[in-house]
Amino acid sequence: MNRVTVFGSYVMDLTTLSPHIPVVGETVFSGPFKMGPGGKGFNQAVAARKSGSQVQFMTKIGRDLFAPFVREAFDRFDISRDNLLESVESGTGVALIIVDRNNGNNAIAVAPEACNELSVEDVRERKEIFVSCDVFLTQFEANLEATYEAIRIAKGSGAKVLLNPAPVKEFDHAILKYVDIIMPNEIEASLMTGIPLDGLDSIKEIAQELGKYVETVVLTLGGKGVYCPSVSDDLIPACKVATVDTTGAGDAFAGIFASYMSRGKSIAEAIDYAKVGAAISTTRFGTSPSMPEKEEIEALLSEIKGGVFG
Questions:
Q1: What residues have CB less than 8 Å from 26, skipping those under 6 apart?
Q2: What element of type H or E holds 47?
Q3: Is the pLDDT reported for residue 278 higher than 50?
Q4: From the DSSP assignment, how many helices (H) and strands (E) are in the chain?
Q5: What domains sit in the chain, N to C, each tagged with a CATH number?
Q6: Are the C-beta atoms of residues 12 and 23 closer than 8 Å to each other?
Q7: How far, in Å, CA of 203 to CA of 94, rounded?
Q8: Cβ pair 246, 290 in contact under 8 A
Q9: Model pTM?
């Protein structure tokens, strides 16, 4: 128990605070600027590790000026480098992030670079990390064929497979028969199903459509909360906090959810821990560095359940 394997992306986050998100053709004076570790895969691995799980993470970076920084980040967050691969062809992935300092909303462009070079052979050579986990978590920010192979191996070993289908892209829907839980945000879910967002009824329709492929659907709705029809027919409300930066909140939710699932918590319980942890992450600037510790998550959830605030 308590073993989580994450497969996916590592990218360098190049982030600035801005008075607003620029429109096309606009230049906006911004700052401060920060460079930090990120990528959906790494963010989720850090979230799972800090919330108490044993974590294995597989990704690929370049042999470039970012590589020493990447290795230091793995060590700092106690993520094993055993499955950190290096490309001789491509550089380390990069995310360009603009955060609106007034509300924490963001605009992001990701160049996965070396993450696209992860291969089926890479996955098969490191099969043990997918066979030995209790929960397997992945996204769509790395090579898809390699992602599919990791999903199939993990499912075949008896692991609970959690897919965060982000960023949205064309993919083989046949892979969903190996997925136990699908966890998109509302925009991703709308794009995947072709159902426009229009209140709770549309959210329920989207969940019903995704439920044709995957047993458990968990839709994250930002400040509105979470919708999971296997838990409740109503929205599960979000935790109210003083938001600074929403970047990485979805990754926090996914990683924390995976961590508590790996310890035998129910879906409803895992959602409670994950929504609290994701809320905490939004009170800090950055992605991986904003992920909360297990003690923070459980203390805030205890306060909420005690009725101090919601």
A1: none
A2: helix 40-50
A3: yes
A4: 10, 13
A5: 40-61+116-302 (3.40.1190.20)
A6: no
A7: 32
A8: no
A9: 0.93
Q: Is 180 noted as a catalytic residue in this protein?
A: no
φ, ψ for residue 137, nearest 5 deg: -125, 130
Half-sphere exposure of 223 (CA within 13 A, CB side): 12
CA distance 102 to 253: 23
| Residue 308 in this model has a pLDDT that exceeds 60 | no
The order of strands in the sheet holding 33-38 is 33-38, 11-18, 93-100, 106-111
Query: What angle (nearest 5°) sits at the alpha carbon of residue 88, between those of residues 133 and 33?
Result: 80
**Tokens 């990485």 correspond to what residue?**
248
Please identify which of the residues 122, 134, 245, 251 carries the catalytic annotation.
251
The 3-state DSSP class for residue 16 equals strand
Rounded to 10°, the helix 249-262/40-50 angle is 50
- Are 182 and 138 within 8 A, CB to CB? no
- Token duo for residue 34: 């920060």
Helix, strand, coil percentages for the chain (3-state, nearest 5): 40, 20, 40
Helix (H, G, I), strand (E, B) or coil at 18: strand
- Which helix (H) or strand (E) covers residue 204, if one does? helix 200-210
Whole-angstrom distance, CA of residue 180 vs CA of residue 183: 10
Q: Tell me, what DSSP letter sits at residue 145?
A: H
Element housing 129 (H / E): helix 127-131
Q: Quote the CA–CA distance of 15 and 5 in Å, as a whole number.
A: 27
Tokens of 125: 């050579």
> How confident is the model over 218-263, as pLDDT tens digits?
999 998 999 999 999 999 999 889 888 888 899 999 999 999 999 9
What's the N-to-C CA distance of the chain in angstroms? 31
Q: Is the separation of the CB atoms in 44 and 254 below 8 Å?
A: yes
Token pair in block for residue 107: 């605009």
Tens of pLDDT along 153-190? 999 999 999 999 999 999 999 999 999 999 999 999 99
Of residues 284, 171, 263, 163, the one with CA closest to residue 215:
163
